[in-house]
Amino acid sequence: MLALSIIADVIPPRDRGKIQGVFAAVFGVSSVLGPLIGGWFVEVASWHWIFYVNLPFGLAALAGFFFGFQATGRRLQHRIDYAGAALLALALAALVLVTSLGGRTLGWSDPLLLAIMAAGVIALVLFVLVERRAAEPVLPLDLFRGNVFAVTSAIGFVSGAMMLGTLTFIPIYLQIAKGATPTQSGWQMIPMTAGLLAASTLSGRYMGRTGRYRILPMIGLSVATAGMFLLTLLMPETPAPGLWLALALVGIGLGTVFPVVTTAVQNTVPRQQIGTATAAGLMFRQIGGSVAVALFGALFAARMAAGLGGTQVEGLADVAELGPQTLARLPEATRAVIALVVSDALHPIYWIAMALAATGVALTLVLREVPLSARMLPKGE
Q1: Is residue 122 part of a domain?
Q2: Are residues 248 and 275 both part of a single domain?
Q3: CB burial string 288-319: b at 16+ within 10 A, e below
Q4: Which end of the chain is more exposed for a tag (fewer CB within 10 A), N or C?
């Protein structure tokens, strides 16, 4: 978030498109390559290394910031909105807990789940009241009065749900339904990386050349809708090129969204609110992904439990027991049944994801386009 805000502080809006396209490409590539690298570490070492490997990258980033970022020396006094931050965190935590536990670990009428719901609602109401009175609110409510911020936040929510839904469940399909190793499943996500990289780069160049952006997510999310539809057709016998095409289409759709939503918001908010608006947009993307993964996970587990509850696969009712090593020890007929159950369990997930992508297309129709300026706004604007 800080890096994106710094770009907005030193580069004119029209030129930001190209830079934001590069940032979006890096984010997408790292998000897709992460499972590939993690799968390789799991195979050759242990799952602990998926955390250890982050240490050198974190140290490199810290060193780059320490030696490359020059402070201005100016000091400004700010009033941190501790109450607003705490209430927002509580409300979001309750949302994720309800979506992940509801109907699976806890029944919808369970007193504990109802208490979590009530706590979330109360925290949200109190958050709104606090933000109305805070001197420097963590999320200024007046931002939502702007068409661009409100619509792009909704689009970001949808795109986050699409991305993490795809990244989470396609490797499960590949490893359980297709018998791929973790590393092989990571390699097969590369078409999504390629689509995202190409689309984000071209989108950034288009914004830099024309100063316009509304058409980009409109086309991209339409392409992503087609990609999600292809994912609803996944079966154990689906050929690899069919999956690659679907993933490439989803990547293209995401690649047109990520640079646009950030650039569009930064172009319309006052300069002193650029950091807040940028962080809020990223927050909505992460919320969309977190909620989607929780809901999709609950749906997938429920359908897997129902499908594996028969006598044909006795002893494998718990989806957590499934994996490439476990499958390798099972008879061919049992593996075929499990592969079919996994594919069937994924279909409703991608129908929902397709509906979300189509919703994103509808949102672009009401998005107001404010042409990107070729000059920097003064500090007070």
Answers
A1: yes
A2: yes
A3: bbbbbbbbbbbbbbebbeebbeeeebeebeeb
A4: C
